[in-house]
Structures are given as C-alpha cells and as structure tokens.
Specification:
10 strands, about 40% helix, alpha/beta, Rossmann fold, about 20% strand, globular
C-alpha cells in the first residue's frame, strides 16, 4: 500500500487540528504504517481507497480513528523510575504530612495511555503508604484515545508489557489472565479513567496534588504547549507537584511554574506570587 503526498498532507492537517500533534515530514513512514494497519482493520483493500473514504465520508468516526491511530502510546510500568522514587521518598511523605487535616489526596495521570503509569502509582501507594488506607485517595487517568482508555480499564497486559518495568516486588499485584496478566482487583478498582483531549476544553475536575503530564507536551507545537500548561496551572493545587517528561520544560512557555530540585526528576510547583 502506498500513501500519496496529498493524503499525507491531509492526515497531517487533520491530526494537528484535532489533537495538536505535529507530524513532520520525517514521520511519513510512521503515518503510512499506521494507516495501512488501520485500513486493513476497517476492511479496505487499498490505502488509496481508505483515504478516499476518510476524505469524503460525512462520518467523523473514520477521521477520529485516523487521529487516534497517530497518537503515540508508548508507556511502561514505573517508566523512568526516578519520578516514582521521588514520589516515594520525598513528595508523598510531605503531602501526607500537609494534608493530615483533610485526609484527601488527588493524583492525575494526563495522557495515561494504557494505564501503566497510574497503576504504578496505585501499587506504590499500597506497598509503601499503608497509612493512606483510610484516606480518600483519588487516582484519575485521561487519554485522547478511546481504545487506550478501554485497555486501561481492562488492566490486562502481555508478559512483555509486564516485564518492562514491573519488578518482582510488585508481581504480587498480578493475576494470570489468559496468555497474560491482569492487575489484581484491589489495585484495578482504585483508578478512574476518562477520555479527554488535552487541547480541547477541559471539564471541571477540581484541583490535584500531583499531576503527571509526562512525555505529552513533546508532541505539541509551542502555542498548544503553552495553552495546556496554562490549563494545568488551574488544576494544580498550591503545594502540589507537576511532573513533566525528561526532555520537557515550562521554560519560555509558561511563567506560572518553578522547578523543584528533587533529584533529577523534572518536577514543578506553582510559582509563588511576588
């Protein structure tokens, strides 16, 4: 199957309009590969015929499937372990002390993909912070992809996905499920997962003590990065923490955050008013 240059341009514009994800010319092979797979799943004999339907069909569902296919869903359990070490050793103990009066903690994984990041947090809390057992701990995961949200709710993973990042200390939270594993009910029932496009309007979700916005901004252009950070500022509780990916920054994008020197984790708090 071949992808004509006009079809690549159409897909690139569609994906940018709907998700703010920037597909450079170097992504043409990736776009072709993912569209070819999607065309076959949708029952089309050729990529050219599939793209004709995408461009001319009045249904928005097919176009959304194209956008969804272009989103990157790379994730793993305890990915880039430093942020989880910082949470365990420094930030969660500090938040527990500061929130003693209300006994409530809210954590949001934005761009949660298939759920491993949020389940990692849930397992970390269960193993290391039993004192939170009688707290109200809310774990929220959101992603633009309906398919990823479905997978996150199912919490079923292949042996390869389990092997990527889940150490022996956490294997007790797994149960066998077919050829793979499912997160045990004690952990699986804790998070809540919702579909959310970060570049569109956000619902009223309240404020969070920890927001994990890791490896999401790298796919946006400058204007959308700034817009997402501006909305994130409104959702981060004073004294709370924002985690970005290792190559991401708020520098020259938003002045409302200040870097927190917590080991090498890319962690921020709201900047104090001056």
């Amino acid at each position: 199957m071949s992808l004509r240059p006009p079809d690549f341009e159409f897909v690139r514009d569609l994906v940018w309009r709907e998700s703010a994800i920037v597909l450079g010319n170097e992504k043409d092979y990736l776009v072709k590969a993912r569209l070819t797979s999607l065309a076959r799943v949708q029952g089309f004999g050729s990529l050219e015929r599939f793209m004709y339907e995408v461009r001319n069909s009045p249904s928005s569902d097919l176009r959304f499937r194209v956008v969804e296919a272009m989103t990157t869903n790379e994730t793993s359990f305890f990915r880039d372990s430093v942020p989880f070490d910082v949470l365990r050793e420094h930030l969660l103990p500090k938040l527990i002390q500061e929130r003693q009066a209300e006994r409530r903690l809210r954590i949001w994984s934005a761009g949660c993909s298939s759920g491993q990041e949020l389940y990692s947090v849930a397992m970390l809390i269960d193993r290391h912070f039993p004192e939170l057992g009688n707290w109200e701990v809310e774990l929220l995961g959101t992603d633009i992809s309906a398919e990823m949200i479905k997978r996150a709710k199912q919490a079923t993973y292949t042996p390869l996905e389990i092997a990527r990042g889940l150490g022996d200390d956490y294997r007790k939270y797994l149960v066998a499920a077919g050829r793979g594993f499912q997160i045990a009910d004690t952990i699986r029932r804790r998070p809540r997962f919702l579909q959310l496009n970060l570049v569109e309007d956000w619902p009223d979700m309240g404020v969070f003590d920890v927001i994990l916005l890791r490896n999401v901004l790298i796919y946006f252009d400058v204007a959308h990065k700034a817009a997402v950070l501006s909305k994130t500022q409104q959702r981060l509780r004073p004294g709370g923490y924002l985690f970005l990916g290792g190559t991401e920054t708020t520098l020259n994008l938003h002045c409302g955050f200040q870097r927190v020197l917590a080991d090498s984790a890319n962690c921020y708090q709201l900047r104090e008013a001056t």
